[in-house]
Amino acid sequence: MTVQAIKITNLLSFDELVVNNLNDMNCIVGRNNVGKSNLLKVLKFFYNKLEGKEELPPKLNSNYSYKGSISITFDMTRIFRIARKQPTNTYFAFIIRKLVPLHKRSMFTLMRYDNDHTTYTLTLNIYNDGKVKWSTNDKQTLNLILYLFPFFHIEPRHMDLHEWDSLWDLISRLKSFNLSKIDDQTIIDFFDKSINADGESSYKNYISELNSTISTKPSTQKEKLLSYIKAGLKGYRFEIDENDLKYHSDGTNSFHFIKTFLKILITISRREYITPFVFREGSI
Hints:
By secondary structure, this protein is α+β, with helices and mostly antiparallel strands. It has helices at about 35-50, 75-85, 90-100, 105-110, 140-150, 165-175, 185-195, 200-215, 220-230, 250-270, and strands spanning about 5-10, 15-20, 65-75, 120-125, 130-135, 150-155, 240, 245, 275-280.
């Protein structure tokens, strides 16, 4: 399991909650008002802060303490096993340097095949004045955790089953590309050369006119990546058995959404050394 343990202290309805010995698939069952929804709220807040989103923190359970905390222990064993087989690989060396304990980084230790289980615990502290602080100030470590152990929340009961836009978020987060050498002008020049006839610059002129007419915020790295991905696909509207989603029942759409979500997740994350954390909410 990507997450080995979760510990929540003094937040919402939790004085202290410890969830450990997690398996690849886990089922959280309980009566109303026992904390199931609060667990999801806390996890979503943890990951939203990893993404840098602005959001009010969950309330402290008791005001007698000045802070609460969320700690997640990630299982690094799989990536550690892969990394130590390629000690000269710069990407894996970066992961080991950031997330593997110092006593396991020596060449002698990396070559051993016994006792290779390793974990990394990241804690988010939440104070009674609304401020939050991570257990590490290293932004690269936080970004690495977010990339290697992404969190996804599936809630078919409250989603628009005829629009699967959340799948695009999944697709754009699972694959990393180096976009540092691509700027907006490079893209404009490429399309202008590719789709115009007789050397005209109608595309470039059209974009220039639009930029002078409308005001838009600069695209994020993820938004740019998603636009490049969509440009290479045969289409961007999802369908089931070559039929539009609106022609199917909610039950059929819900089933196929989850099926498609998991197929994308399994296929891509296997190649990217990612171990995702998926929270599926629903009733039995």
